[in-house]
Amino acid sequence: MSEGMQYRISRARIFLFFTYFIVIAVAAVLPILFKVTFFYYASYYVLYFIILSEAWNIFGGYCGYVNFGVAGFAGAAAYTDAYLIKIGVANFTTALFCGALVAVFLGLLLGYCTLRLRGDYFSIASVALATIVQMIIISRPELGGGLGFVIPMPEPPQPYTTFVEFLFVVMVVIASTSVLISWKVAKSWIGMGLVAIKDDEIAAETLGVPTFRLKLLAAIISALFIGLAGATLPSYVIYLDPYSSMAIEVTVTTLASAYLGGLGFWYGPLVGASILGTASRVCTLTIGSEFNVLVIGIILVVTIMIAPSGIVGAIKKRVKEGNR
Amino acid sequence: MITAETLLTALMFGVFLGGFYGLMSTGLSYIFGLMGIADLSYFGFLSLGGYATYLLCIAAKLDPIIAGLLLFPLFFLIGCLKYFWFNKVIEGKHGAFSLTTGYVLLFGLLIITEMCIYVRWGITEVGVLTTYTMQTITAGPMRLPLRLILPFIVCLVLTTMLYLLQRRTFLGIVMRGLALDELVLSCSGCNTFRIKMIIFGISSGLCSIAGGLLLAIQPINPFVGRMFIGLSFAICVLGGMGNIFGTLAAGIFFGTVENLASVLVDRVLGSAILFFAALLLLLLKPQGLFRR
Amino acid sequence: MQLKSALKRVIGEIGLVKPILEIHNIAKNFGGLQALKGINLNVDKTERLGLIGPNGSGKTTLINVISGVLRCDKGKVIFEGTDITHLSPHKITRLGVARTFQIPKPFTSMRVLENVTIPLLFVHGSSVHNYEDIALSLLKLVGIESKAYFPTSQLTQIELRKLELARALATKPKLLLLDEVGAGLTAAEIDELITFLKKLNNEGLTIIMVEHVMRAIFQFCERVVVLNFGEVISDGTPKEISSDPKVVSIYLGQ
Fold first, then answer.
1. Nearest to C90 among A192, A200, A209 (CB)
2. Residue A303 has pLDDT above 90, yes or no
3. In chain A, which residues have their Cβ closer than 8 Å to the Cβ of C117?
4. Which of A155, A189, A261, B240 is a good FRET partner for A236, with 20 to 30 A between their CA atoms?
5. Is A82 part of any domain?
6. Structural domain boundaries enclosing A228
7. C122: nearest CB among A202, A208, A264
C-alpha cells in the first residue's frame, strides 16, 4: 500500500473517531442547555430509525440478504426490556442489554436455520419470524397479551431533569456507535467478504471466504443493534403494545430509509433515516398515520425504480461524471 | 372436555380450511415455484381480491364465490401488468438488479396495496352474509358449516382444473419447461416474457378467487393476507414446487395440524406450533415431502 | 516422457509416494440423472492431467464435487491424505485446492484488483501484509495489470478468464482445477496459456484441466482421462487415448 494512501486512511479514521466523540459529548450536554422537550421527543423517532436502518444495512445492504422481520427483532427486544423492568429484576441499562441479547439470539436462530439454504429462505423466514414473535407476545397474558402494559418510568440520572432527555443521550450514543460500527465493518475484511458474497456467493466460497460464518456474523451484528434500538422503546412509549411496537411500519420505514439513503454505503442509511424519519413524523402529524405508511411504501418503490443506489449513490455518480 | 366428536369436527374444519390454504399456496407457487420469486405482494393482492369481491357482491348482489370467479379476468390482467412492471424495473435494467431487490420492490407493493385498502376502509372488518353463512350440514355427530364446505369443493374443482392445465395443455408444458430451464426454452423459440406474464396473471387471478372464497368463509380486514405469508411458503415448499396436488395435500395437512393444535392446546399457540413444525420439516426435507 | 510416467506408476504401486488426489467411487445423482457413476481416479503430485469427454459426461460435475461445491452421494475424495469429501468449499480451498469456473464469476461490485485481494485476504490473511502489491504481481503474471483499477464490467471475456486464473492462483494452491480455460481462445493465445501453465507446473503445481480444445490437451497434458456418461472409459497418454477405439467412437458416434 502506498504511503500516501495509508496516510489518507489514518487521517480519515482520526477524523471519524473525533466526530464520534464530539457528537456524543454535544448530545450529553445539550439537554442541560437546550430545554425544549419537544425536540427530544421528536428526535427519538429519527434516531430510532437511524439505528435500525444502519443495522439492517450491514446484512441487507453489504451482503444482499434482506431481513423483513426487523419489527419482530425490535419488538422482542422491547418486550424483554419492558418485562425485566416491570418485574423489577433489572435497571435500565441491564434490561437494555438483555433485550439486545434476545434479538441477537433470534438472529442466530434465524441465521443458523436458513443461511445454509438457498438465499431467499432467510428473507421468507424473517417474515415468518416477525409474525411468530408477535403471536407469542399476544398470547402471553404476563406480557399484557393484546392489550399491552405500562412500564414504570424511572428517575433520570443527574443532571438530566426528564427521562426523555437522558434517553436522547442514550439514543445518540447507540446511533453514533451503529454508524461507526457500520463504517468499521465496511472497511474491514468482514465488509469485503460480505460484498463478495453478495456479488457471487459460490465464487466467494471457492476463494476461501467462509460464507456461512461470515453471514452469521453480519446477521448477529445487525440483530444486536436492532435489539438495542428496540429495547429503548418501552422507556419512550411507556405504554407498550404488540401492535404498534411491532407494526410492519417499522420494517418498511427501515427498508425505505436504507434504500433512500443508499444501500451499501456506511452512511447511506444515516442520510435516508434522517430525511425519512423527519418527513414521516411531519406526515403523521399532518395527514395521519395510515397515509404516512402508504407514503413510505411509495417512497420505497419509487426509490428502487428511479434511484436504486439511493441519494448517496446518485450524488456520487454525479460527482464522478462531473469529474470526467 | 375434548371429545372424539370435537376432535373429529376440528379435523374436518382443518381439512376444509386446508383446501383453501392449498389453493392459495398454489397461486403463490406459480410465481415462487415456477419462477423462484418470493412474491410478497401476492398477499396484498389476496386482500385486494377479497375487497374487490366484496365491492362486486355489494354492487351486483352476488355470491362472493361467484364474484371472485368473475373477477378472475380482471386480476389476470393486473397480474400481467405487475409482471410487466417488475420486469422493467428489475430484470430489464441490463439485468444488473439482484432478485432480493425485487423482493423488496414487491414488499413495497404489498405495503402500498394494503395501505390503500386501509385508508379507504379502515381496520374494521367487512363481510358478506350469504344464504349459507349460517347453515350447517349434519354428518353423523358433526355439524359442518356450509361456508367451509362450499369453498372447499370449489378449491378441489379448481385444483383439478389447474392440474389439467399443467399436464394436458401446451401452456402447461411450456410453464413446466420454464421452471426447468429458461434459457433452453427461450432458445426453442418460445417467448418467455409472455409465459412469465401469463404465470403472474394466473397467480393474481387466483388471488381474486381466493379472496372471494375467504370472504365466504369469514369477514376480512385489509391485512388478512399477511397472516398467511409464512404458512403459504411452507406449504409451497413442502408440497413440492409446481406439484399442484402435492400443494393441495400439504395445505390440507397444515390445515388439519393447525386446527387440531388450536383445539388441543391454544389458538395462538397452535399457529406457533404449526410454524415451528413447518420450519422443522423444511430443515429436514428442504426438497419438500412430495416430488417436484 | 514415457519412462517418467512408468517410473511414477511403479513408485505409486510400491506406495512410496502418495497421490495428491484420490477419488474413490464418486457417484452423483441429479434427481434421476446419474451424472457420475463411480469414478475412481488418482492424481499424482505435479501431474498434468487432462479430463475430456462429450458434453454431459460429468467433467464439470466432478470438478464441482472435488472442490466441494457439490455434495456427492457416495464415495470419497482425499487430498494429500485428508478426507475432503464433506468439507465446505472454503475449507478445501484453504487446504490447497483451487478452481476456475467455466463462465467467469467476477465480483462485479469491486475493481479487478479487489477481486484478487479477496482470496489473498481470506486464504492467507494472517501472513500477508501487502495485499495490493501481491495482487498486482498476480495480475501482472496473467497479463492484465493495466486493468487493475478498472471495474470488472470493462474487461473482455479473455481478460475475465485471466482474472479467474489470477484469483485461483492467489489462493496459493497445490492443486489447480481448470474448467475449460481454453474455450474461444486463438491458437496463439492457447500456446501462451500452455507455456504459462507449464511454468506453474514446473514450480510444483498439480493441474487438472477439463477441456474441449484438443490442442491444449495434447500440448499440455501428460495423461488424459476420458469420461462418458459419468464413467471413466479411458486413461492414458494423449496418444494412447486418441487411438483408443472406445474414445474415437464416442466422439464420432459409431
1. A209
2. yes
3. 192
4. A261
5. yes
6. 3-246
7. A208
